[in-house]
Automatic annotation (TrEMBL):
Family: Belongs to the cytochrome P450 family.
PANTHER family for this protein: CYTOCHROME P450 YJIB-RELATED, P450, PUTATIVE (EUROFUNG)-RELATED
SUPFAM superfamilies, sorted: Cytochrome P450 (SSF48264)
Source organism superkingdom: Bacteria
Annotated Pfam families: p450
Family annotation (CDD domains): Cyp158A-like (cd11031)
GO MF annotations in UniProt: heme binding; iron ion binding; monooxygenase activity; oxidoreductase activity, acting on paired donors, with incorporation or reduction of molecular oxygen
Keywords: Heme, Iron, Metal-binding, Monooxygenase, Oxidoreductase
Name this polypeptide is given: Cytochrome P450
Organism: Lentzea aerocolonigenes (Lechevalieria aerocolonigenes)
Amino acid sequence: MSATFPFTTDRSLDNEPEAQELLARRGPVVPATMGPIEIWLALSYAACKQVLTDPRFSREEATRPGGPVTLPSAANPLVLTSMEGRRHARTRKLVASAFSPRMVALLEPRVQEIVDSLLDESPVDLVSGLCVPLPTMVICELLGAPYSDAPDIRRWTGRLMTGRLTQEELREVEHEVQGYLADLVEEKRLRPDGKLITALVLAHDEGGHLTSSELLANLQMLLAAGHDTTVNQLGNSLLTLLRHPAEMQRLIDDPTLMGTAVDELLRFSRLMAATLPRVTTEAVELDGVRLPAGAAVLPVLSSANRDPSVFPDPDRLDVGRDDAAPLAMGFGPHYCLGAQLAKLELRIALTSVLQRFPGLRLAVDESSLTYRMECNVRALVSLPVTW
Ligand code: HEM
Protein backbone atom coordinates (compact mmCIF):
# COMPACT_ATOMS: atom_id res chain seq x y z
CA MET A 1 0.00 0.00 0.00
CA SER A 2 1.27 3.47 -0.85
CA ALA A 3 2.33 5.61 2.12
CA THR A 4 0.76 9.05 2.63
CA PHE A 5 1.99 12.27 4.20
CA PRO A 6 1.03 14.01 6.53
CA PHE A 7 0.95 11.06 8.91
CA THR A 8 -2.16 10.60 11.02
CA THR A 9 -0.26 10.04 14.26
CA ASP A 10 -2.09 10.97 17.45
CA ARG A 11 -0.57 14.30 18.52
CA SER A 12 -0.38 13.24 22.16
CA LEU A 13 2.39 10.79 21.27
CA ASP A 14 6.03 11.80 21.63
CA ASN A 15 6.92 9.55 18.72
CA GLU A 16 5.63 8.93 15.18
CA PRO A 17 4.85 5.17 15.04
CA GLU A 18 3.71 5.42 11.40
CA ALA A 19 7.06 6.78 10.23
CA GLN A 20 9.07 4.44 12.47
CA GLU A 21 7.12 1.45 11.13
CA LEU A 22 7.67 2.53 7.52
CA LEU A 23 11.42 2.73 8.20
CA ALA A 24 11.48 -0.68 9.92
CA ARG A 25 9.31 -2.51 7.35
CA ARG A 26 9.83 -0.72 4.04
CA GLY A 27 13.34 0.70 4.35
CA PRO A 28 15.05 4.10 4.50
CA VAL A 29 13.46 5.75 1.42
CA VAL A 30 9.82 5.09 0.53
CA PRO A 31 7.52 6.51 -2.19
CA ALA A 32 4.41 8.28 -0.90
CA THR A 33 1.69 10.73 -1.84
CA MET A 34 1.28 14.19 -0.33
CA GLY A 35 -2.09 15.43 -1.61
CA PRO A 36 -1.76 15.46 -5.42
CA ILE A 37 2.06 15.25 -5.27
CA GLU A 38 4.22 12.13 -5.39
CA ILE A 39 7.04 12.41 -2.94
CA TRP A 40 9.82 10.19 -1.53
CA LEU A 41 9.99 9.97 2.25
CA ALA A 42 13.60 10.02 3.50
CA LEU A 43 13.09 8.10 6.75
CA SER A 44 16.52 7.03 8.00
CA TYR A 45 19.06 9.27 9.71
CA ALA A 46 21.55 8.71 6.85
CA ALA A 47 18.97 9.53 4.16
CA CYS A 48 17.78 12.70 5.94
CA LYS A 49 21.32 13.88 6.52
CA GLN A 50 22.17 13.37 2.84
CA VAL A 51 19.06 15.27 1.68
CA LEU A 52 19.99 18.15 3.99
CA THR A 53 23.63 18.35 2.86
CA ASP A 54 23.91 17.07 -0.74
CA PRO A 55 23.53 20.02 -3.21
CA ARG A 56 21.72 17.72 -5.66
CA PHE A 57 18.68 18.03 -3.34
CA SER A 58 17.49 21.54 -4.11
CA ARG A 59 15.31 23.90 -2.06
CA GLU A 60 15.18 26.35 -4.96
CA GLU A 61 13.64 23.69 -7.24
CA ALA A 62 11.17 22.71 -4.51
CA THR A 63 9.77 26.24 -4.27
CA ARG A 64 8.97 26.57 -8.00
CA PRO A 65 5.22 26.66 -8.87
CA GLY A 66 3.75 23.18 -8.60
CA GLY A 67 6.59 22.07 -6.30
CA PRO A 68 6.14 20.23 -3.00
CA VAL A 69 5.39 23.17 -0.68
CA THR A 70 4.63 22.22 2.94
CA LEU A 71 4.96 25.72 4.38
CA PRO A 72 3.96 28.51 1.95
CA SER A 73 5.76 31.22 3.97
CA ALA A 74 9.10 29.37 3.60
CA ALA A 75 8.79 29.31 -0.21
CA ASN A 76 9.29 33.04 -0.89
CA PRO A 77 12.33 33.20 -3.25
CA LEU A 78 13.83 36.04 -1.16
CA VAL A 79 14.11 34.03 2.07
CA LEU A 80 17.05 31.89 3.17
CA THR A 81 15.02 28.68 3.20
CA SER A 82 14.35 28.84 -0.54
CA MET A 83 17.87 29.72 -1.67
CA GLU A 84 20.91 27.58 -2.24
CA GLY A 85 24.51 27.65 -3.38
CA ARG A 86 26.32 30.98 -3.55
CA ARG A 87 23.18 33.08 -3.23
CA HIS A 88 22.21 31.25 -0.04
CA ALA A 89 25.76 31.40 1.36
CA ARG A 90 25.98 35.16 0.77
CA THR A 91 22.58 36.00 2.29
CA ARG A 92 23.11 33.63 5.20
CA LYS A 93 26.48 35.18 5.94
CA LEU A 94 24.95 38.66 6.01
CA VAL A 95 22.06 37.59 8.26
CA ALA A 96 24.41 35.54 10.49
CA SER A 97 26.81 38.47 10.86
CA ALA A 98 23.95 40.41 12.48
CA PHE A 99 22.43 37.47 14.38
CA SER A 100 25.80 36.51 15.81
CA PRO A 101 26.72 34.19 18.72
CA ARG A 102 27.89 37.32 20.55
CA MET A 103 24.48 38.96 20.18
CA VAL A 104 22.80 35.79 21.48
CA ALA A 105 25.24 35.47 24.40
CA LEU A 106 24.49 39.07 25.38
CA LEU A 107 20.80 38.11 25.68
CA GLU A 108 21.46 35.44 28.34
CA PRO A 109 20.96 37.61 31.48
CA ARG A 110 17.82 39.13 29.94
CA VAL A 111 16.39 35.66 29.15
CA GLN A 112 17.02 34.63 32.79
CA GLU A 113 15.28 37.80 34.05
CA ILE A 114 12.27 37.18 31.81
CA VAL A 115 12.01 33.54 32.95
CA ASP A 116 12.33 34.56 36.62
CA SER A 117 9.64 37.20 36.32
CA LEU A 118 7.27 34.76 34.59
CA LEU A 119 7.89 32.08 37.24
CA ASP A 120 7.37 34.65 40.05
CA GLU A 121 3.73 34.60 38.97
CA SER A 122 3.56 30.86 39.92
CA PRO A 123 1.93 29.91 36.59
CA VAL A 124 -0.61 27.12 36.94
CA ASP A 125 -0.66 26.69 33.14
CA LEU A 126 2.89 26.51 31.83
CA VAL A 127 1.83 27.09 28.20
CA SER A 128 0.16 30.48 28.76
CA GLY A 129 2.39 31.39 31.72
CA LEU A 130 5.81 30.51 30.30
CA CYS A 131 6.03 28.75 26.92
CA VAL A 132 4.09 31.40 24.96
CA PRO A 133 5.32 34.65 26.55
CA LEU A 134 9.02 33.73 26.84
CA PRO A 135 9.93 33.40 23.12
CA THR A 136 7.69 36.36 22.22
CA MET A 137 9.40 38.60 24.76
CA VAL A 138 12.82 37.34 23.67
CA ILE A 139 12.03 38.09 20.01
CA CYS A 140 10.95 41.62 21.01
CA GLU A 141 14.21 41.98 22.95
CA LEU A 142 16.21 40.69 19.97
CA LEU A 143 14.56 42.99 17.44
CA GLY A 144 14.43 46.00 19.76
CA ALA A 145 10.58 46.07 19.63
CA PRO A 146 8.36 47.02 22.61
CA TYR A 147 6.73 44.12 24.53
CA SER A 148 3.35 45.68 23.76
CA ASP A 149 3.82 44.39 20.17
CA ALA A 150 3.95 40.79 21.45
CA PRO A 151 0.26 39.89 20.87
CA ASP A 152 0.48 40.98 17.19
CA ILE A 153 3.74 39.07 16.69
CA ARG A 154 2.18 35.98 18.24
CA ARG A 155 -0.89 36.22 15.97
CA TRP A 156 1.16 36.71 12.77
CA THR A 157 3.69 33.98 13.49
CA GLY A 158 0.92 31.50 14.33
CA ARG A 159 -0.59 32.19 10.88
CA LEU A 160 2.73 32.06 9.01
CA MET A 161 3.57 28.66 10.45
CA THR A 162 0.27 27.15 9.28
CA GLY A 163 0.71 24.78 6.36
CA ARG A 164 -2.81 25.37 5.06
CA LEU A 165 -2.66 29.09 4.15
CA THR A 166 -4.01 29.98 0.71
CA GLN A 167 -1.93 32.35 -1.46
CA GLU A 168 -4.39 35.12 -0.71
CA GLU A 169 -4.29 34.55 3.07
CA LEU A 170 -0.49 34.45 2.92
CA ARG A 171 -0.39 37.76 1.01
CA GLU A 172 -2.71 39.35 3.60
CA VAL A 173 -0.66 38.34 6.62
CA GLU A 174 2.63 39.17 4.86
CA HIS A 175 1.31 42.61 4.04
CA GLU A 176 0.52 43.23 7.72
CA VAL A 177 3.83 41.83 9.07
CA GLN A 178 5.97 43.57 6.48
CA GLY A 179 4.22 46.90 7.09
CA TYR A 180 5.00 46.51 10.79
CA LEU A 181 8.61 45.49 10.13
CA ALA A 182 9.13 48.31 7.61
CA ASP A 183 8.11 50.86 10.29
CA LEU A 184 10.46 49.21 12.79
CA VAL A 185 13.34 49.25 10.26
CA GLU A 186 12.71 52.93 9.56
CA GLU A 187 12.74 53.69 13.28
CA LYS A 188 16.07 51.83 13.71
CA ARG A 189 17.60 53.69 10.77
CA LEU A 190 16.76 56.94 12.57
CA ARG A 191 17.63 55.69 16.07
CA PRO A 192 20.11 52.77 15.88
CA ASP A 193 20.04 50.64 19.06
CA GLY A 194 22.69 47.95 18.56
CA LYS A 195 20.05 45.18 18.32
CA LEU A 196 19.26 42.76 15.50
CA ILE A 197 17.43 45.09 13.09
CA THR A 198 20.09 47.79 13.39
CA ALA A 199 22.80 45.15 12.81
CA LEU A 200 20.91 43.77 9.76
CA VAL A 201 20.50 47.27 8.31
CA LEU A 202 24.25 47.82 8.68
CA ALA A 203 25.31 44.32 7.51
CA HIS A 204 27.15 44.44 4.19
CA ASP A 205 29.82 42.70 2.13
CA GLU A 206 31.65 43.54 -1.11
CA GLY A 207 28.30 43.11 -2.92
CA GLY A 208 26.67 45.75 -0.68
CA HIS A 209 23.73 45.56 1.73
CA LEU A 210 20.66 43.32 1.72
CA THR A 211 18.03 45.03 -0.43
CA SER A 212 15.09 46.38 1.46
CA SER A 213 12.81 43.52 0.23
CA GLU A 214 15.44 40.92 1.20
CA LEU A 215 15.76 42.55 4.60
CA LEU A 216 12.00 42.54 5.26
CA ALA A 217 11.43 39.02 3.91
CA ASN A 218 14.22 37.56 6.03
CA LEU A 219 13.18 39.48 9.14
CA GLN A 220 9.70 38.05 8.67
CA MET A 221 11.22 34.58 8.37
CA LEU A 222 13.25 35.02 11.55
CA LEU A 223 10.06 35.98 13.36
CA ALA A 224 8.10 33.04 12.01
CA ALA A 225 10.81 30.36 12.12
CA GLY A 226 11.87 31.31 15.62
CA HIS A 227 8.56 31.61 17.34
CA ASP A 228 6.12 28.70 17.17
CA THR A 229 9.03 26.26 17.15
CA THR A 230 10.45 27.51 20.46
CA VAL A 231 7.04 27.97 22.14
CA ASN A 232 6.03 24.41 21.35
CA GLN A 233 9.38 22.73 21.87
CA LEU A 234 9.36 24.20 25.37
CA GLY A 235 5.84 22.85 26.06
CA ASN A 236 6.63 19.44 24.59
CA SER A 237 9.90 19.23 26.55
CA LEU A 238 8.12 19.97 29.83
CA LEU A 239 5.44 17.38 29.10
CA THR A 240 8.04 14.75 28.14
CA LEU A 241 9.86 15.34 31.44
CA LEU A 242 6.58 15.10 33.40
CA ARG A 243 5.96 11.77 31.69
CA HIS A 244 9.45 10.55 32.71
CA PRO A 245 9.78 11.42 36.43
CA ALA A 246 13.01 9.42 36.89
CA GLU A 247 14.74 11.40 34.09
CA MET A 248 13.32 14.64 35.52
CA GLN A 249 14.78 13.73 38.92
CA ARG A 250 18.16 12.99 37.28
CA LEU A 251 18.14 16.54 35.91
CA ILE A 252 17.14 18.06 39.27
CA ASP A 253 19.97 16.13 40.99
CA ASP A 254 22.53 16.97 38.31
CA PRO A 255 21.76 20.22 36.42
CA THR A 256 25.02 19.83 34.44
CA LEU A 257 23.07 17.30 32.33
CA MET A 258 20.91 20.14 30.93
CA GLY A 259 23.08 20.53 27.79
CA THR A 260 22.56 16.93 26.64
CA ALA A 261 18.98 16.97 27.99
CA VAL A 262 17.96 19.84 25.67
CA ASP A 263 19.28 17.88 22.65
CA GLU A 264 17.67 14.65 23.85
CA LEU A 265 14.32 16.41 24.29
CA LEU A 266 14.65 17.85 20.76
CA ARG A 267 15.28 14.31 19.47
CA PHE A 268 12.61 12.63 21.54
CA SER A 269 9.59 14.91 21.60
CA ARG A 270 8.74 15.09 17.86
CA LEU A 271 8.11 18.79 17.38
CA MET A 272 7.60 18.31 13.64
CA ALA A 273 7.16 15.23 11.50
CA ALA A 274 9.38 16.55 8.70
CA THR A 275 11.34 19.58 7.61
CA LEU A 276 11.15 21.38 4.25
CA PRO A 277 11.02 19.24 1.08
CA ARG A 278 13.72 19.24 -1.63
CA VAL A 279 13.73 18.28 -5.34
CA THR A 280 16.57 16.32 -7.00
CA THR A 281 18.46 18.15 -9.76
CA GLU A 282 19.78 14.86 -11.27
CA ALA A 283 19.41 11.12 -10.72
CA VAL A 284 20.88 10.30 -7.31
CA GLU A 285 21.29 7.34 -4.98
CA LEU A 286 19.81 7.94 -1.53
CA ASP A 287 20.65 5.43 1.22
CA GLY A 288 20.66 2.63 -1.37
CA VAL A 289 17.58 3.77 -3.34
CA ARG A 290 17.93 5.23 -6.85
CA LEU A 291 15.87 8.42 -7.36
CA PRO A 292 15.29 10.06 -10.75
CA ALA A 293 15.99 13.73 -11.51
CA GLY A 294 13.10 15.99 -10.51
CA ALA A 295 11.99 13.77 -7.61
CA ALA A 296 10.38 15.48 -4.61
CA VAL A 297 11.93 14.29 -1.32
CA LEU A 298 10.80 14.94 2.25
CA PRO A 299 13.31 14.63 5.13
CA VAL A 300 11.26 12.90 7.86
CA LEU A 301 12.93 14.06 11.07
CA SER A 302 10.59 12.12 13.38
CA SER A 303 11.84 8.73 12.13
CA ALA A 304 15.46 9.87 11.60
CA ASN A 305 15.60 10.94 15.26
CA ARG A 306 14.45 7.45 16.31
CA ASP A 307 16.63 5.54 13.84
CA PRO A 308 17.91 2.56 15.89
CA SER A 309 21.09 2.32 13.81
CA VAL A 310 22.15 5.72 15.17
CA PHE A 311 20.33 5.99 18.52
CA PRO A 312 20.46 2.67 20.41
CA ASP A 313 17.17 1.94 22.20
CA PRO A 314 15.65 5.00 20.47
CA ASP A 315 12.32 4.96 22.33
CA ARG A 316 14.05 5.42 25.69
CA LEU A 317 14.46 8.98 26.98
CA ASP A 318 17.99 9.40 28.36
CA VAL A 319 18.87 12.96 29.37
CA GLY A 320 22.56 12.04 29.35
CA ARG A 321 22.48 10.62 25.79
CA ASP A 322 25.17 11.85 23.42
CA ASP A 323 25.10 9.21 20.63
CA ALA A 324 24.73 11.63 17.70
CA ALA A 325 23.35 15.08 16.91
CA PRO A 326 19.56 14.89 16.53
CA LEU A 327 18.27 16.35 13.25
CA ALA A 328 15.45 18.33 14.90
CA MET A 329 17.13 21.62 13.92
CA GLY A 330 18.26 20.44 10.51
CA PHE A 331 21.85 19.85 9.38
CA GLY A 332 24.29 21.33 6.88
CA PRO A 333 23.97 24.63 5.01
CA HIS A 334 20.39 25.36 6.17
CA TYR A 335 21.05 24.30 9.79
CA CYS A 336 18.81 26.35 12.07
CA LEU A 337 20.22 29.86 12.35
CA GLY A 338 18.43 30.33 15.66
CA ALA A 339 19.66 27.08 17.26
CA GLN A 340 21.87 28.83 19.78
CA LEU A 341 19.09 31.18 20.85
CA ALA A 342 16.43 28.45 21.04
CA LYS A 343 18.71 26.19 23.09
CA LEU A 344 19.57 29.08 25.41
CA GLU A 345 15.86 29.69 26.07
CA LEU A 346 15.17 25.97 26.56
CA ARG A 347 18.14 25.51 28.90
CA ILE A 348 17.32 28.52 31.09
CA ALA A 349 13.57 27.88 31.20
CA LEU A 350 13.84 24.15 32.00
CA THR A 351 16.59 24.66 34.60
CA SER A 352 14.62 27.41 36.33
CA VAL A 353 11.32 25.49 36.37
CA LEU A 354 12.99 22.40 37.88
CA GLN A 355 14.91 24.41 40.47
CA ARG A 356 11.89 26.42 41.50
CA PHE A 357 9.32 23.60 41.46
CA PRO A 358 11.12 20.28 42.08
CA GLY A 359 7.79 18.63 42.97
CA LEU A 360 6.28 19.60 39.56
CA ARG A 361 3.51 17.33 38.33
CA LEU A 362 0.47 17.49 36.01
CA ALA A 363 -2.61 18.97 37.66
CA VAL A 364 -5.03 17.14 35.33
CA ASP A 365 -5.38 13.70 33.88
CA GLU A 366 -2.99 13.36 30.93
CA SER A 367 -5.82 12.26 28.65
CA SER A 368 -7.45 15.69 28.95
CA LEU A 369 -4.49 17.53 27.33
CA THR A 370 -5.29 18.87 23.86
CA TYR A 371 -3.27 20.06 20.84
CA ARG A 372 -3.75 22.84 18.28
CA MET A 373 -4.69 20.91 15.16
CA GLU A 374 -4.23 23.77 12.65
CA CYS A 375 -0.56 23.96 13.52
CA ASN A 376 2.23 22.28 11.49
CA VAL A 377 4.10 21.57 14.71
CA ARG A 378 2.97 19.58 17.74
CA ALA A 379 1.45 22.32 19.88
CA LEU A 380 -0.08 21.83 23.34
CA VAL A 381 -3.08 24.08 24.07
CA SER A 382 -2.31 24.18 27.80
CA LEU A 383 -0.19 22.39 30.40
CA PRO A 384 -1.85 22.67 33.84
CA VAL A 385 0.61 21.86 36.63
CA THR A 386 0.92 21.79 40.38
CA TRP A 387 3.89 21.31 42.74
C1 HEM B 1 13.20 24.70 19.10
C2 HEM B 1 13.24 25.67 18.23
C3 HEM B 1 13.59 25.51 16.78
C4 HEM B 1 13.55 24.41 15.96
C5 HEM B 1 13.14 22.99 16.33
C6 HEM B 1 14.00 24.84 14.65
C7 HEM B 1 14.12 24.00 13.55
C8 HEM B 1 14.68 24.35 12.35
C9 HEM B 1 14.96 23.45 11.25
C10 HEM B 1 14.62 21.96 11.23
C11 HEM B 1 15.54 24.17 10.25
C12 HEM B 1 16.09 23.61 8.92
C13 HEM B 1 15.14 23.76 7.77
C14 HEM B 1 15.57 22.89 6.58
O1 HEM B 1 16.76 22.79 6.24
O2 HEM B 1 14.66 22.27 6.00
C15 HEM B 1 15.61 25.54 10.70
C16 HEM B 1 16.10 26.59 9.94
C17 HEM B 1 16.05 27.90 10.35
N1 HEM B 1 15.70 28.38 11.60
FE1 HEM B 1 15.10 27.28 13.18
N2 HEM B 1 14.27 26.17 14.68
C18 HEM B 1 14.05 26.63 15.96
C19 HEM B 1 14.23 27.93 16.44
C20 HEM B 1 14.64 29.00 15.67
C21 HEM B 1 14.83 30.36 16.15
C22 HEM B 1 14.65 30.81 17.61
C23 HEM B 1 15.16 31.12 15.06
C24 HEM B 1 15.45 32.59 14.96
C25 HEM B 1 15.07 33.53 15.79
C26 HEM B 1 15.23 30.23 13.92
C27 HEM B 1 15.55 30.61 12.64
C28 HEM B 1 15.80 29.75 11.59
C29 HEM B 1 16.22 30.19 10.27
C30 HEM B 1 16.47 31.64 9.84
C31 HEM B 1 16.38 29.03 9.49
C32 HEM B 1 16.77 28.95 8.01
C33 HEM B 1 18.26 28.83 7.83
C34 HEM B 1 18.67 28.68 6.37
O3 HEM B 1 17.84 28.34 5.52
O4 HEM B 1 19.86 28.91 6.08
N3 HEM B 1 14.90 28.96 14.31
N4 HEM B 1 15.11 25.63 11.99
